[in-house]
Amino acid sequence: MIAKLKQFLQSHAQAVTPEEQAQQLKLAAVSLLLEVMYADETLDEQEVAMLPSMISHSLNISSAEANALIDEAKLVQGNATSLFEFTAEINAQCSIEQKQKLLLCMWKLAYSDGKLCRNEDQIIRRTADLLYLKHSEVIQMRNIAMEQR
């Protein structure tokens, strides 16, 4: 029975095209960034302005594509039940360096309004745990984000 379940899961996973996998990865990353943005329950103008440019620069896409991705991620993020849904996708497809880059973007977004909310900090740290990043990496990315503001 376990072998049949494993075979089903493998055949089902193979049905996803590389383009769909890339899109799912982008949606997962943007959804995590949205989690940070919404964590303090106030949408700051700097956060709202920073997100599309951060995404277009990080993913090397146009501003229009970044805004479309944000709109799609808002729907996905709104229906999510936990951060694990997003981090599982990232763990499956990303290297440590890519995870660190995402964490750095999360810290930059959190500090964009000049202050770090406790909820933003908690979401970033929970995400880092789910991405299997070390505490030293979390602190290093936070320090880089603070220096670059």
From TrEMBL:
<dbReference type="Pfam" id="PF05099">
    <property type="entry name" value="TerB"/>
</dbReference>
<dbReference type="InterPro" id="IPR029024">
    <property type="entry name" value="TerB-like"/>
</dbReference>
<protein>
    <submittedName>
        <fullName>Tellurium resistance terB-like protein subgroup 2</fullName>
    </submittedName>
</protein>
<dbReference type="InterPro" id="IPR007791">
    <property type="entry name" value="DjlA_N"/>
</dbReference>
<feature type="domain" description="Co-chaperone DjlA N-terminal">
    <location>
        <begin position="27"/>
        <end position="143"/>
    </location>
</feature>
